[in-house]
Amino acid sequence: MTDDSTPLLEVRDLTVTFASEAGPVRAVRTLSYQVNRGEVLGIVGESGSGKTVSSLAVMDLLPSHARVSGSVRFEGKELVGLGDKELSKLRGRRIAMIFQDPLSALTPVYTVGDQIAEAIRVHQDVSAAAARDRAIELLTLVGIPNPSRRVASFPHEFSGGMRQRVMIAMAIANDPALIIADEPTTALDVTVQAQILDLLQKAREVTGAAILLITHDLGVVAGIADRVGVMYAGKLVETGPVDDVFYRPRMPYTLGLLGSLPRPDQGAHQALTPIEGNPPSLVSLPAGCPFAPRCPLRIERCAQQEPDLVQHAGAHAAACHRSDEVERRRVAGEHVFPPGLVALAAARSPRAEHALVLAVRDLVKEFPVLRGAVLRRRVGSLRAVDGVTFDIREGETLGLVGESGCGKTTTIMEILNLLPPQAGSVAVLGQDAAAMTPDQRFRVRRDIQVVFQDPMAALDPRLPVSDIIGEPLETHGVAAPERARRVRELLALVGLQPEHADRYPQAFSGGQRQRIGIARALALKPKLLVLDEPVSALDVSIRAGVINLLERLKTELGLSYLFVAHDLAVVRHIADRVAVMYLGRIVEIGDVTEVFERPTHPYTQALLSAVPIADPRKERSRRRILLQGDLPSPLDPPSGCRFRPRCPRFAHELDDAGQQLCHKDVALEARAGGAGHLDACHHSRPAPVL
Amino acid sequence: MSTAVPTVSRASLVARQFLRKRLALGGVAFLLALFALAYLSPLLTKWQYDQLDTTAFLTPPSVGHWFGTTQNGFDVFALTMRGMQKSLVIGLLGALISTGLAAVVGAFAGYFGGRLNTLLVGLIDLLLVLPGFLIISILSPAFHGRTWLIFVLLLAAFQWMITARIVRGMTLSLKEREFVHAARFMGVPGSRIIFRHILPNVASLLIIDATVNVSSLILAEVGLSFFGFGVQPPDVSLGTLIGDYSGSSLSYPWQFYFPAGFLIALVLAINVIGDGLRDAFDPNAGGSVS
Fold this sequence. Notes:
The structure holds two protein chains of two kinds.
Chain A: E1 9-18, E2 25-35, E3 40-44, H1 51-58, E4 66-74, E5 77-78, H2 84-90, E6 95-98, H3 112-123, H4 128-141, H5 147-150, H6 160-172, E7 178-182, H7 190-207, E8 210-215, H8 218-224, E9 227-232, E10 235-241, H9 242-247, H10 252-259, H11 300-304, E11 310-311, E12 317-318, H12 323-329, E13 356-371, E14 377-393, E15 397-401, H13 408-417, E16 423-428, E17 431-432, H14 438-444, E18 448-451, H15 465-475, H16 480-493, H17 510-522, E19 528-532, H18 540-557, E20 560-565, H19 568-574, E21 577-582, E22 585-591, H20 592-597, H21 602-610, H22 616-621, H23 648-652, H24 656-662, E23 669-670, E24 678-679
Helix pairs in contact in A: 3-4, 3-6, 4-6, 6-7, 15-16, 15-17, 16-17, 17-18
Chain B: H1 10-19, H2 22-44, H3 76-112, H4 114-129, H5 132-143, H6 149-157, H7 161-174, H8 178-185, H9 190-201, H10 203-226, H11 238-245, H12 254-281
């Protein structure tokens, strides 16, 4: 052991190159950073920035064709070039790793107890029984209920959040000095993310380990990290204490990232400031600063010489020729990145005066649960959507939010099918889906179109863009010359070039593909656009551009949106009204500012409190409402109020009589929120949480 | 907007891509040449395939008999060309029918599901367990004396089932993809979705299947002809020629190597065309992005 003054982990000039047919891919270029004992270093970057590759290089877990050079010193010991045998003694014992996908990080054929015990016994000479006891102890520590029974469970019997808890238990099993967490919460819902981040903090307190947190989410970093490093094109472009980087960024990229982030605690007063263009290809990097082609501040020198990471005041360092100027401007985003077209909707007349575009009443969707291989019989039913009611008026955006499994996607699929629902009704522009003839249904499809989440899966890879955008036109009988004209018009409308029409979707980046998807949805001039998580698959800097486009189109074309998302910040930015779903029901609905600032349902409050905000001071001073456990199975939902088993208000604030009330079913109606702000809680009470 | 760039549809993009593949174009040219040679051969030589030259038994290639003669005095060139006429049609037509049937049945069963699926899968399974060879032998006398094209249909009818099952499986996963949902939600009818979205996305499989089918059908015909069904003497096919003369490949090689060589050339040409077509359909293949 060395003394405390040497950094725990010191990475110097780390370079990782992969061979590819197009030439060497320089995934990480002369990366240097250090992690001190017990601190949390957050590494932020978009996909392809090299953040994961660099962390895998530290552990020497890269595929064998990767060429690694530079130096990685852990507790004063050089790791690069160390044999696998030597490294194995460190891995899992002194350095532990938590991966992004908790599903594939656990072996499906062994019980979680065995896997934790294995992690212990590899490094410690203890008996099987002792290791098992320790596994139970660890499971208790990470908050798995009923650990002595759950220790014998297999990974598939756990939810995603629980699996990540098991991963953390394995990581801290040997009391490591450093935990590398690679996007530990990206695959998880926001309330579960809050639980896991809380647990990481706890793990750090228990073991005193330092944490290297790799993420794309600035909000997560703001809350948990002491220092932060921003990566771009394989290099660290800015690093320093969290407050310095967030409040006094010295690199235009950092500034741009912060400006392009919608904030859940701020309304849509102005357009976001997207960063133009796409990250450079790591095969053919430009000669100068890799960010220069996208940078609004670039000068001649930027194209010629790549700036080094230069130390400024304190521990704050940035790689920019003009970092002093950037720092002086100070104001987030505004000056450096001029905001795009400010899409301010004209002062709107009262809601009731606008025509009803979509009316959903008591919608129910039940899936049969079948058992048996040969003679399949129905043993029960899964109510994915259980009595959902909302409506959307002309020119309005309704944000439908909720965690995975709450029934949002089933709801929109039921609406888009335009078939008679199992119960309740769906009416588009006043026409009831149940009463439509096939011919009418076909015509109504012109008015209701959809944009999907995954821009790759939503476009037929074997059709050129002109055919993709032209398909709805062709289907609805637009002649070929007019179709070609419309396709060009639509491409221009979503900010693409007309000559893009004869390329296949593969030739486009994620953001561009999503624009093509939007162009296709707009081809028939619909009245209502259903947007199913349209930006969640995109990188932060690209996301802002798509959000701005959606806002601009809405005002220009007078569209109504049904915006389904799990990202509350985006919903806050784009929606006029918001509906929160839980277990197939809407628990709260109302004006977006109302719901975000004065939520009345405890689930909404918990959800909002769990959203990370990219503002370190605010983030540190917030109190999170942590929910207990996971979403109950929709196969067997709780009686009465469905949120009751996890409800903090039920558990801590109510007397017996109040609790008795919660066992009764609860309707969605105006309570403490006032008119137009409905919730489904017997004990409705507003409580600001943002 | 008359000056604007014209938008290009998939058909013309695929055609453009295909025309860029030199090797595949060579394959097409070669195949056409084979057709021309097979059907124009009676003009090239004075010997007919069923004509005996009683002055030349088992002579090696010469000026009079380009490919030599057989033991009975048949001209091997005339036989080979006559055989190729049959085999080209059996192979190409049979492969088209069998792969086309597989694509349509598989995709419809997978996409529409329900009763249609039960019905079509039942049919596939039934045909899979029926011994095709036996059925064709039993049916052969019924078609006796009529056109041998019925025989092509019969051969193809017992060739498509496994591919159809694969296509059905791929359709089941493709139909849950978002671009199929998107097409459905804009009102595109199911059959159009199948031909526009589903089948192009399984095109690689279909093209490979078709090229493999060409050679396997030509060879399947050999087996049947051997047992006295299919192409009957004095008529010949490449398959019957290869079957008949494989025994003399070492002693009197011209009888065997000329028909076999043409079969190999034919299959190679088909494979090259298939590869070119597959690349032209596949946007990921190199050079598709200008």
